[in-house]
User: Which sequence fits this backbone?
């Protein structure tokens, strides 16, 4: 064992400020992924709940969107969301590299039975990658997509409803959207509960419940989103 | 010996051979004939080695010591599972009756950057020692032992500390984790000492230093898969990792340096 190299490495890091050390540490990084993940989980829930108005009435749906984008706080909210999203992605990507490097040589056989790792937890990075690409495409399709207008009580309002109906009339887009949202559901089913563990909350009484709530949360968010294009494609008649 | 079943099985073994840390390594195939199902996995390996030596080949090196499941020396990944398929079991306590006649058994070393292979199935686990040196202890001045009742420890804390202290430091948690993370090991030590009064003085420093050393050794991060706890021969719970995270975050924010 080479003690000298260890002590020299220690000396280098002592001068680093404690906060920088925290952010660079694996546990600090993972906590950041957890906190930002919880923030993003709340966002997707509110996004899904607001958009459910599409099942009620096109006018209400459009006015809801209009109220959001005309609120001056929208820029603050958008900046916050971008910060959460980027911190979550960047830290998760960096950690994935650290984790990959920690085992340069793979096993000939994977663990099995009680000692196996579930496919959902094993592929969190891949789910994240797909969600990342989806979010960018999603912004281009809707936020920066075709701009239609409708007049309500003499006031021009963006007709997002028309765009949604138009986009989801294409079966390819419908299927792609459903797949992306199912993947988001998987990501949330592990992520939400996992964040509590990462942030130091584990209790024999509550943790099993948190895991169940995490799955329920994922089901509600993914199901709520998927219901919207399905409604538009199969039920909505203009 | 009473109670022997006198049953024997034949196995096809694929065993990892590696001449040293820099050797690429490869699998050798070996037919283990008439293996008594009453043997432990390590006894089976002893017989394999005797056969290899008789055939003029070099034996397979593997770590072992107490052979009663308490020292943490034995390792090996058997068909993808550290310490084999059974839970709460070390390789030395795994018995051949757990295997079927004619089964192929793949035997590999623990694989992690922080656990370099020394030879064959022997890996260098001194990274764990360096993590312990970084803070896995309590400092006490020697002198007369104080009255035991002067340091009250609630029963619940004593039990929890004991459960964490059961960690034998074998490294199966690292071996099974998809990230080769040492979180379960380090958290067991931090939690064990953090639950008793004697561990309080150095609690923050311990959490900071041990985590820092863990990161420097090149272990991966925890992604809460739970495989470590499932593979742990002492069934150390994931609660330890949550406790470590809490201690480390708190200690880092309190740090004045």
Assistant:
């Amino acid at each position: 064992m080479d003690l000298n190299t260890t002590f020299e490495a220690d000396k280098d890091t002592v001068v680093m400020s404690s906060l920088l050390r925290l952010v660079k540490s694996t546990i600090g990084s993972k906590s950041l992924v957890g906190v930002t993940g919880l923030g993003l989980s709340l966002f997707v829930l509110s996004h899904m709940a607001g958009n459910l108005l599409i099942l009620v009435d096109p006018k209400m749906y459009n006015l809801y969107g209009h109220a959001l984008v005309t609120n001056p706080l929208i820029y603050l909210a958008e900046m916050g969301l971008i910060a959460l999203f980027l911190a979550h992605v960047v830290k998760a990507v960096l950690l994935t590299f650290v984790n990959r490097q920690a085992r340069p040589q793979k096993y000939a056989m994977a663990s099995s039975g009680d000692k196996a790792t579930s496919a959902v937890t094993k592929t969190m990075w891949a789910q994240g990658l797909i969600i990342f690409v989806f979010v960018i495409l999603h912004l281009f399709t809707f936020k920066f997509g075709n701009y239609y207008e409708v007049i309500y009580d003499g006031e021009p309002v963006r007709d997002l409803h028309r765009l949604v109906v138009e986009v989801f009339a294409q079966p390819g887009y419908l299927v792609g959207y459903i797949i992306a949202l199912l993947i988001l559901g998987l990501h949330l089913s592990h992520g939400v509960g996992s964040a509590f563990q990462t942030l130091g909350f584990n209790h024999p009484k509550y943790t099993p419940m948190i895991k169940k709530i995490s799955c329920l949360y994922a089901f509600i968010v993914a199901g709520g989103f998927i219901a919207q294009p399905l409604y538009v494609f199969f039920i909505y008649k203009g | 010996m009473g109670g022997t079943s006198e049953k024997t099985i034949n196995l096809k073994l694929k065993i990892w051979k590696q001449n040293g840390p820099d050797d690429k390594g490869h699998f050798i195939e070996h037919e283990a004939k008439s293996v008594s199902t009453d043997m432990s996995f390590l006894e089976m390996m002893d017989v394999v080695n005797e056969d290899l030596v008789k055939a003029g080949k070099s034996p397979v090196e593997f770590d072992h010591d107490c052979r009663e499941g308490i020292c943490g020396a034995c390792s090996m990944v058997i068909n993808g599972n550290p310490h084999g398929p059974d839970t709460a079991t070390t390789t030395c306590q795994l018995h051949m009756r757990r295997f079927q006649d004619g089964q192929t058994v793949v035997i590999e070393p623990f694989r992690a950057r922080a656990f370099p292979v020394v030879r064959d199935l022997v890996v260098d686990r001194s990274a764990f020692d360096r993590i312990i040196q970084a803070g896995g202890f309590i400092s006490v001045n020697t002198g007369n032992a104080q009255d035991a009742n002067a340091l009250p420890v609630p029963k619940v804390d004593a039990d929890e500390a004991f459960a964490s202290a059961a960690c034998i430091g074998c490294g199966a948690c690292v071996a099974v984790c998809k990230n080769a993370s040492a979180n379960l090991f380090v958290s067991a030590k931090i939690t064990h000492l953090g639950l008793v009064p004697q561990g309080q003085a150095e609690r923050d420093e311990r959490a900071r230093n041990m985590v820092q050393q863990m990161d420097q050794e090149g272990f991966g991060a925890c992604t809460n898969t739970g495989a470590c706890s499932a593979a742990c021969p002492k069934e150390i719970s994931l609660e330890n990792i949550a406790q470590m995270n809490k201690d480390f975050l708190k200690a880092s924010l309190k740090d004045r340096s």
